[in-house]
Specification:
The complex is a heterotetramer, with two copies of chain A (401 residues) and two copies of chain B (364 residues). Chain A has 401 residues and is an alpha+beta fold. Chain A folds into three domains: 83 residues, Butyryl-Coa Dehydrogenase, subunit A, domain 1 (Orthogonal Bundle); 109 residues, Butyryl-CoA Dehydrogenase, subunit A, domain 2 (Beta Barrel); 150 residues, Butyryl-CoA Dehydrogenase, subunit A, domain 3 (Up-down Bundle). Helices cover 44% and strands 13% of the residues of chain A. In chain A, strand 6 and strand 7 form a beta hairpin. In chain A, helix 5 packs antiparallel against helix 6, helix 8 packs antiparallel against helix 9 and helix 8 packs parallel to helix 10. By secondary structure, chain B is of the alpha+beta class. Chain B has three domains: 99 residues, Orthogonal Bundle (Butyryl-Coa Dehydrogenase, subunit A, domain 1), CATH 1.10.540.10; 100 residues, Butyryl-CoA Dehydrogenase, subunit A, domain 2 (Beta Barrel); 145 residues, Butyryl-CoA Dehydrogenase, subunit A, domain 3, CATH 1.20.140. Chain B has a four-stranded mixed β-sheet with strand order 1-4-5-8. A four-stranded antiparallel β-sheet of chain B has the order 2-3-7-6, with no helix packed on it. Chain B has a two-stranded antiparallel ribbon with strand order 9-10. The longest helix of chain B has 37 residues. The two termini of chain B are 16 Å apart. The chains are: A alpha+beta (401), B alpha+beta (364).
């Protein structure tokens, strides 16, 4: 047992922190800190700076830019990226489609896509969810029918984050509907510039514009864009969902938020004192900080166990998802409560993300962030699904008779 | 005790509800026409005494209207012009207040009470904004924050420190030195930060002096807080109904998700939270005529519980809706936005519990 | 609407309070207040004092001692009984078996039992639960087979409160097992002195001795003791469970407990202050007090609505059961926390209930009361069952497809 | 970081676990024989330095033992004689302390540290109990409350106020003027109130003076608190396993109740609470060698979270068991009693969070 971080791990953390603070432009970090939506160029710039240092895809095969770092070190890396308000490497690229291409793609596909994905030269979004299939992913209906050298794709995806910024989308599509619903699903890469694709923004309650519906009307996709074998898309999706869990707990993100809460709550002096002077507020903040400390260690336990395990995801990862999302939500609530009535005129939503320099004060983000925080327990496998996993896979609680 | 509506109350509730629902159906707001409807139906005159042209509706009637307002997610300002500013005007003196009240009652004018200040949180009793006596009248200087529905008002009612305490000043919104900076709240109201930069006012601008202003504002705030609670319960009620419909319809893994027991139990807990909140609305309303110290504590206790219920019901409703709950085209999210906005008004849970504790607990 | 208590209701409350404080011996009220188990004589004495004033069975038919009081007044009565630390009239007698006999018993049975039940001259306990049938009551197996003028009863009941103090037990027994499980159940009164009955105490985690197992080995029960018709016991049980709900919220009981918490927390001055000086403790107490105020009104709403409704129980009663039990549990937790480490040597359990004068100090009860409080969400229809009722009967949430 | 046990640790855990489980199986306690077993297996010597005859086991080894102890619901005093009194003795000076420690290590003697006082809650740092210098030594006067496992001890270690601060006195339990009043705790330990009525002591009775006593006690208390947390996690772990078994077996309405999703989700939340608690045990143990102020805050934070988890897991386990959870013959209730007892030791949640807040938060 080694219940503390080792000297090497501490050294790595310091090195990462130093690199991030030195190399990522302050304007970008300020925008992240203030919850402003970043323009595409800034996200690309940040990822390229990370990629230069090997920080974008350390978990990939070494041949494609990966580093042979321990899972604990990779977790430290993500924590520092989040904590220092650096935009994470685009998850759809580096954590999702990249590893699938590396594992199941052809050599040609790897050469074509992987370096571009790592460097965010190509921006991918994810086409999994459909209107009728949320957590029940396998119920998807978007079809791809082979016609010579192309698939004809028809259907609709929903909740597609950043589709409006992306170049490509990776999709689960149904190539066969004769068998069990998990069968007959294929994994397809689609260039969003292909005719027949329409992207519609979904307005969300946080006032941001980040998710979309994507409609496919007879879209022609070259069969070369099929990853792996036809009909095995479900396996690839499961592989993908089992990838890189060093950040499921969002520990660095919550820490940054809670630190901000402490700053805001300690700063709003006035005739009735600061929020931090309220014992009840302070207690809630303290409890959140303690819960976060526990989560940090739970995260490291899962990560360290993962490193030894086979590729099957550790079902205890669900603990990270549940507590991690709850903590982000708690942090957002605390921020709202720290501000009191002034939250209302602090502004809401970010209508103009084309102007990243648009000045907003410290009161701007909290209402949007509060509404936005609800998504953490819904997307990426809702907390209900996570509890099902814990009950069944970890505790062995019985199926219905 | 008796919780049944009498015939008149049933009628009021039904007609108010129909009006708000019709407005909601109508889609694009025609604010002026809707406000005229409020006026025609007597909703504006409802809480005021007959002596000034009101309908003497009483607290229960206001509660019923606000419950319907919350259920329909109504949009026209009511809390501010009628229950806050209006009630303060009715308690004030002089020609300025009387004409503003008359204008409110005939639907032609609105005022807005400015309660909060920068870094003052929910305390309005000790304003940093001050009014200095001049030869001709007063000079008003200070800032107010998050003034509800100030942008449709022609008169701002501003509590300010004077020698001896807090007095209340009526300030035309277009007076030199007054600046409004207005934002939409997430639920579609407006909230304004207001700067009073040495605004010169005549003597008639002081519509309540340091002996009466505090009590008049406190009464209006407590009444509006109770009304706000009623609105929240109306909104929660409807949000639960929407949620139940959704989970009874939405299928996953081959059955409606409302058949999953874990979801059923959470919906049941939402119901419990709402009914407890409704009981506290009754309590607050029943205490509105108690002596001011007790009234304040009772209303604070009510909103503390209603706030907690609203946060629970709101977040659970969104969770049970999944992604759909986050889309602002879909009603659930809008009810959640409304509830969140109302939570921040008149005191958050922490502030309100503090009031109850300072008083040593609830009146028996 | 009349959202306040009327003058008449206030007057009634004052009258009840005055009667209770004047007539119930202080020793009995002190024992209740200190959570000491009462000897049988004291419980009988208290009920007889209540009965003299018409306070034991006001909800019964007037012919049998009932008063024609409004449900709100009856609720006030129970609240004052609880709040003033007076033992409630024995629920098994006055709220359960009594109303069933009054509704479905023969004239002979009414004459024989009702006055004795009201006056606690006869002590009844309830034989419903069985080892294999907790919340699923209809799964009961205890059988009663007709042999001439008697039923032969065999089987086992469990969780029988006060069986060791009782004279009689009212049981649901199976007289026919051919049909649906709700059918073939009958309602039988059994004299506990009958040969073949064995009562075994169940030791519970609170250290008290109050629940039992009751074993029936070929017990002969005269057919005269059958209530109503054979095979209709399930209907009678449902009727019984729909009786007197003026006290489901346990409002007076929680109020007494919370008042005690405030006293204890305010009294333990010492070098590190009193529990009440902790802002966090005070906040929890305040929240409980507010929740109780809400429950008091919810209780009155259910009670007032009940008065107009038919005999079907208002499913919203489940709200009272859920919040009422939670509040009693919260009060018990607060008391434990108010005492700190001293709770440990305050004593635990009541080994000798034969000596009601046994002195115990203010620290005695809390640990036992804390453990005991868990039962409120389990017995009398667990809170899970109550949530099922709310979900299905009130919200109309769908049955499984 | 590395959370794997090495070979030695695996061995220790397995053998301690086997011992505790065997004892639990044996039913009727033979306290003396079981204590001898603890001694023979080296559990008593485990935490002490080799210099005094200990095994230098380290904090992690103690954690593993306590986890197994909690899981098996072991009954022999360990926290008090070994981790509290024992550790304080090891930090003390003089013949009295040395012989008591030697007696502990050979299994023949036990001491008990008296921490709390009437109305003093969890603060032991400022005792009202005082020791006055006399010609021949000291007169000790005061009361201590809820002293754990004092009834098997022959020596009481009593912190008392002296000029300059707090010193520690060793008092034979049969010294004139010492009175114990002992009760069983719900989980079968003992807790005693102790009165020191002008107990006359020799100079050698002061085994740590005002310069060293506070630090020695604080170190022992923090170590014992972390160990207590480990015991709680062991107990919670087993309680969840018992609960899962129960609901997978118990049938209602025609299926095992563990098939009901609402119950599954609650069991899942119990698991989350336990794993978070386990992480905090690791944190506390890792911080035991930090400087005292940080150690204290880390341990307090750990127990605050473990306490909350224990209350949640304990009450949920009983609820999921229904009536069976209340029967003390059935194991679930006994684990709940154990967890409740441990919750009240070394600080309840409120007290512990206060420590963290006073320090301005967790060390980074």
């Amino acid at each position: 047992m080694e219940l503390q971080f080792t000297d090497e791990e501490r050294g790595f953390r310091a090195e990462v922190r130093d690199y991030l603070r030195t190399n990522i432009p302050d304007a970008i970090r300020a925008a992240v800190r203030e919850e402003r939506p970043l323009p595409r160029e800034w996200m690309v710039e940040a990822q390229q700076i990370l990629n230069r240092a090997g920080y974008a895809v350390p978990h990939w095969p070494v041949a494609w830019g990966g580093r042979d770092w321990s899972a604990v070190k990779r977790a430290i890396l993500t924590e520092e990226i989040d904590r220092n308000a650096v935009p994470r490497p685009l998850a759809f690229n580096v954590a999702l489609v990249g590893p699938v291409i590396a594992a199941f793609g052809s050599e040609e596909q790897k050469r074509r896509f992987l370096p571009a994905i790592a460097n965010l030269d190509l921006w991918f979004c994810q086409g999994f969810s459909e209107p009728g299939a949320g957590s029940d992913l396998a119920a998807l209906k978007t079809s791809a029918v082979r016609e010579g050298d192309v698939y004809r794709v028809n259907g609709q995806k929903i909740w597609t984050t950043y589709a409006h910024k992306a170049d490509w989308i990776f999709c689960l599509v149904r190539t066969d509907s004769s068998g069990r619903k998990q069968q007959g699903i294929s994994f397809l890469l689609i260039d969003l510039a292909t005719p027949g694709i329409e992207i519609r923004l979904i307005h969300t309650i946080d006032g941001y514009r980040h998710v979309n519906e994507v409609f496919f009307d007879n879209v022609a996709v070259p069969v070369d864009n099929l990853i792996g074998e036809e009909g095995r898309g479900w396996d690839y999706a499961k592989y993908l969902l089992g990838q890189e869990r060093t950040s499921m707990g969002n520990v660095g993100f919550s820490r940054r938020r809670l630190e901000q809460v402490r700053v805001v709550a300690s700063g709003t002096t006035g005739p009735c004192g600061r929020a931090i002077d309220s014992a009840a507020f302070r207690r809630r903040l303290t409890q959140a900080e303690i819960e976060l400390k526990a989560l940090e260690i739970t995260q490291m336990r899962v990560v360290a166990a993962d490193a030894k395990a086979s590729h099957a995801p550790d079902p205890k990862t669900s603990i990270l998802k549940i507590r991690g999302s709850e903590l982000l939500q708690t942090a957002a609530e605390l921020m709202l409560d720290a501000l009191g009535p002034e939250a209302l005129t602090g502004g809401f939503g970010m209508p103009d993300e084309t102007d990243p320099h648009q000045g907003i004060d410290a009161r701007s983000a909290p209402l949007s962030a509060y509404f936005s925080s609800r998504k953490f327990s819904i997307f990426g496998g809702s907390n209900e699904i996570q509890r099902n996993i814990l009950a069944k896979a970890v505790l062995g609680l019985g199926a219905r008779k | 005790m008796n919780f049944d509506l009498d015939e008149e109350q049933e009628l009021l509730r039904a007609s108010a509800s129909r009006l708000f629902e019709d407005h909601a159906q109508a889609g694009q707001d025609d604010a002026a026409a809707q406000w005229r409807d409020y006026c025609d139906m007597g909703l504006i005159a409802l809480p005021f005494p007959a002596a000034v042209g009101g309908l003497d509706g009483g607290h229960e009637a206001v509660m019923l209207v606000m419950d319907a307002y919350g259920a329909a997610l109504a949009r026209q300002p009511y809390l501010q012009p009628v229950l806050l500013a209006g009630r303060v005007l009715a308690q004030s003196e002089g020609e300025l207040a009387a004409s503003a009240l008359a204008g409110l009652l005939d639907g032609s004018r609105r005022a807005a009470l400015c309660l909060y200040e920068p870094r003052g949180r929910y305390r309005w009793e000790l304003p940093q904004t001050s009014a200095l006596r001049t030869g001709e009248g007063w000079t008003l200087r200070g800032e107010k924050r998050a003034v509800l529905d100030a942008d449709g008002a022609d008169l701002l009612l501003c509590p300010a420190s004077v020698r001896g305490g807090v007095a209340l000043f009526a300030v035309p919104v277009d007076a030199p030195g007054v600046t409004l900076s207005t934002r939409r709240t997430p639920d579609g109201r407006s909230a304004s930060d207001v700067v009073f930069a040495d605004v010169a006012l005549g003597t008639e601008a002081m519509i309540a002096d340091h002996r009466s202003a505090g009590a008049a504002i406190a009464a209006a705030v407590d009444g509006a807080t109770a009304a706000c609670c009623a609105e929240m319960v109306g909104a929660m009620d409807r949000l639960l109904a929407i949620t139940v419909d959704y989970i009874n319809t939405r299928e996953q893994f081959g059955q409606p998700i409302g058949a999953f027991q874990a979801l059923q139990h959470r919906a049941a807990d939402m119901l419990v939270a709402i009914e407890q909140a409704r009981s506290m609305v009754y309590y607050a309303v029943a205490m509105l005529d108690a002596e001011p110290a007790q009234r304040k504590v009772a209303v604070a206790a009510a909103k503390a519980l209603v706030n907690r219920s609203a946060r629970f019901v709101g977040t659970e409703a969104i969770q049970l809706h999944g992604g759909m709950g986050l889309a602002s085209e879909y009603p659930a999210g809008r009810y959640f936005q409304r509830l969140t906005t109302l939570e921040t008004m008149f005191g958050d849970t922490d502030h309100l519990l503090g009031i109850v504790e300072t008083a040593g607990g609830l009146p028996d």
